[in-house]
Design goal:
about 90 residues; three-stranded antiparallel β-sheet; 3 strands; about 20% strand
């Protein structure tokens, strides 16, 4: 099933690379796409795995819009962004 998750703190292609690499490591997640302009992650996964996806996004610094976006999330997103720029997919 295709799911869409709108997220906070998404800034660039480096962020997108980190998100794609992080989410494709979750069993059952396929076809991860990130739209930087819309702050949107689109992916194929099950409802059960969607919970893990949202947890992983939050841990990377990109919480779902509407959930808590703390200074820690923002700081993590800067690190994830830098790592994503170095480790392009």
């Amino acid at each position: 099933m295709v799911h869409e998750v709108y997220i906070e703190n998404l800034k660039c292609g480096g962020c997108a690379n980190t998100i794609i690499n992080g989410l494709t490591s979750i069993k059952g997640v396929e076809e991860v796409k990130v739209d930087v302009e819309k702050s949107l992650v689109t992916l194929k996964t099950t409802e059960a795995s969607l919970i893990l996806v949202k947890e992983k996004l939050s841990k990377l610094g990109y919480p779902e819009i509407g959930s808590e976006n703390t200074i820690l999330h923002k700081a993590k997103s800067f690190v994830s962004c830098a790592v994503g720029k170095v480790n392009k997919a």
